[in-house]
Amino acid sequence: MKFSNVSEIPLTDIDQENRLTDFSMDGCPEKLMDSVKVIGIRHPICVCASGSRYSIVSGHKRFQAAPRSGLTTIPAFIVPELDNASRLIINLNENFGQRHYSDIEKGGILNKLTQAGISDETIIADYMPLLELERSKKLFLDLSGVDKLSPGLKKLLHRAGVPVKTFNTFYKWNSLTEAENLFSVLKPGINKWRDLLDLIDEVAARENTTQEDVISRDDIQEFLAATDLPAPQRYDQIHKTLHNLRYPVLSDMRKQVARALDEMELDDKTRLRFQDTFENNELKLELKFQSEKELSQQVEKIFKALQGGSVEKLIHIFHDIG
Predict the structure, then answer these.
(1) Which CATH topology does 1-98 take?
(2) Is 284 helix (H, G, I), strand (E, B) or coil?
């Protein structure tokens, strides 16, 4: 469809509640408002007739910026009344290559195309490429599942840029209330979302319970409510708790090592290094010193630990791995 004549339309003549083609989950950018205040709207929006008013086909952010920048009218291409499918397709084609949507937004767009009566086959063949997606039935179904998520959780996933291959695990959860609360507090990055979700799923499977029950555990809720700790530290504590639940043998090994180190009574500047997953039994002692006296003190405590048998206990813990 070619657009020709541009008209200056009063903002009040446009139905701002009709958001069919508003695919973005972000608000109007400050930079756009600043630009509109200085130079106005240089690129007209596109609207179509809708009863006695107009509905936006493309240009929602420019429309949002207009009244905030003091404008009362907006330049627009006016096209005849369109059905929902046509409006969606025009918007996708106009923004192809210019907009990069999150997977949450892409899922919402695919659902709008489906609700407009377009067949799954046509969406996969013709319109998924406009969203920079491969033509895949599985990917289509995974992305379309975003409607199963709560609005709050979708917003969190969108802002963090979490991909569908990570968040589709939520589709098998019975309730998302606890998940939304957990991630709204922790606000982790993409990789941490994946790590935490993997652990929650694995613990739930191991203990034959639900993911919601895992998150609702008293120890996890206690860390979640620890407002004196910054979010990254709360994440680390919760991750550690889940990891111990997932790998109870490793958790017990760490406790044994901690007790053995307490018995050794090493100098504060002496560090024992070992593989956290206990996949091998190699141990390393790291000594930090700035004088002969500091070195002597550390060596003396190591020798004392050797004589007392605590080093032998530590070695046995790691030899028992094999």
Answers:
(1) 3.90.1530
(2) strand
Cβ(77)–Cβ(14) below 8 Å? no
DSSP tag of 125: I
Q: Render 300-319 in DSSP notation, one character per residue.
A: HHHHHHHHHTHHHHHHHHHH
Q: Domain spans of the chain?
A: 1-98, 100-148, 150-246, 265-319
- Is pTM, for the whole model, over 0.90? no
What span, in angstroms and rounded, lies between the C-alpha atoms of 200 and 210?
A: 9
Q: Are 56 and 64 in contact (CB under 8 A)?
A: no
Q: Which residue is associated with the tokens 């400050």?
A: 30
The predicted-structure confidence for 52-73, as pLDDT tens digits, reads as follows 899 999 999 999 999 988 999 9
d(CA 256, CA 273): 15
> Which residues partner with 68 through β-bridges?
none
User: pLDDT tens digit string along 149-180?
Assistant: 999 999 999 999 999 999 999 999 999 999 99
Q: How far apart are CA 270 and CA 90, in angstroms?
A: 67
What gap in Å lies between CA 322 and CA 25, rounded to an integer? 52
**Helix locations, the chain, DSSP H:** 30-39, 60-68, 84-95, 103-115, 120-122, 137-144, 151-160, 164-167, 177-186, 190-206, 211-215, 218-224, 231-246, 248-264, 292-308, 310-319
